[in-house]
Amino acid sequence: MSTPERFPKTTPATVEEIPLEELDPREFILEKIAEIRNKVGDEKAINALSGGVDSSTVTALGHRALGKKLITCFIDNGLMRKNEPQWVLDSFKKLGIEVILVNAQEEFFAALKGIADPEEKREAITQTFYKKVFGRLVGESGVHHLLQGTNYTDIEETVAGVKRQHNVLAQLGINTEEQFGYRVIEPLAQLRKPAVREVAKALGLPEAIYNRPPFPGPALATRIIGEVKPERVGIIRKATEIIEEELTGIEAFQSLAVLHQDMITGVRNGIRDFGFQIEIRSWISEDGKSGTPAEIPYVMLIRLSNRITNEVPGVVSVTYNITPKPPSTIEAI
Ligand code: XMP
Q: Which residue in 110, 134, 149, 178 has a CA-CA distance of 20 to 30 Å to 211?
């Protein structure tokens, strides 16, 4: 994978992993609080919270370190799951952390218009997030420090070129200060997801957050093959809601729906119904680096198929992915 040319390269940072067995969460928290305070000094910092375990942990850690000197924003890109923005805001309010809601739906959809290529979609989301929406917020706030929840697996996969992760910049040698006007602080860069969860727990975050299944930065766009339009996000959002409801009892790392690009012939009430195809994926995995499909009971798959074809308008076909990662990936783009 090559880094887009418009990013000037610096030397990629090297990061040493702290394995779960070697992690002392309390000690780690104290160290990172000191490090964040040291880097930010008397200035202010900003961070974007998505509600995933990584960004939630960074938010809690950052607020412990900086208190009100940390501005936390939730950027609604229009690609989130049902009720997600409000759930995240409410969860943090209960912890005494105010989060600013930024509605950027139109900007993201405008940037994604007409794009079908997976990497171009990721690039459009990255650029809209960092340069337009976040860049503007940072510019308006006059803040130069950005706290970010990048974890060790993100760095590994990005550097290896498996995928262009949306939240990894410094490790690609991208100079964020020159490009976007801020310095990135990545306190979780040495931890994989299970270790991040331990830190989240030690920070006093509720279980609904520290045990939350991972959800990608580019959100539902990673589950739409072809163009990302509001109507297509609506389809995948509803299918995701059904899958998450039905599969809560399954011991899976992540369960998700994918909307395919090709339409397929179906039949409804004796009449041809040319419609959408939804693929279900449910993963057994340690940290998302590799994975195997969960052995979902057949009755449950049938129930999912019935609900999705009845409750998601236009869907005529539901399949279950039985391919491990590799060669599949967890998300579809
Ligand atoms: P993949 O699809 O690469 O997913 O096999 C591995 C894990 O990473 C999550 N994922 C992302 N997380 N930004 C993120 O923060 C991204 O761009 C991104 N893409 C994938 C995915 O949900 C899985 O847990």
A: 134
Does 151 or 3 have the greater pLDDT score?
A: 151
Whose Cα sits closest to atom 1 in ligand 1? 330
Which domain-ending residue is among 149, 181, 210? 210
pTM value is 0.87
pLDDT tens-place string over residues 124-153: 998 999 889 987 888 888 898 999 999 998
217 annotated ligand-binding residue: no
| Cα 163 to ligand 1 centre (Å) | 8
Ligand 1 in reach of 167 Cβ (< 6 A): yes
For residue 249, being part of any structural domain is answered with yes
Structure tokens given for 69: 């000197």
Domain of 21: which CATH number?
3.40.50.620
305 is annotated as contributing to ligand binding: no
Q: From 210, 241, 269, give the residue that closes a domain.
A: 210
Q: Answer yes or no: is 51 a known binding residue.
A: yes
Q: Looking at the 3D structure of the chain, how many domains does it have?
A: 2
C-alpha separations of 57 from 146, 173, 177, 202 in Å? 14, 25, 24, 10
First-to-last alpha carbon distance for the chain, in angstroms, is: 15
Number of the ligand 1 atom closest to the C-alpha atom of 193: 24
Considering only CA atoms, which of 278, 235, 227, 261 is closest in space to residue 108?
A: 227
Which residue lies with its CA nearest to atom 12 of ligand 1?
216
Which residue has tokens 């370190």? 65
Same domain, 122 and 31: yes
Range of the domain at 253: 224-320
The pLDDT value recorded for residue 158 is: 75
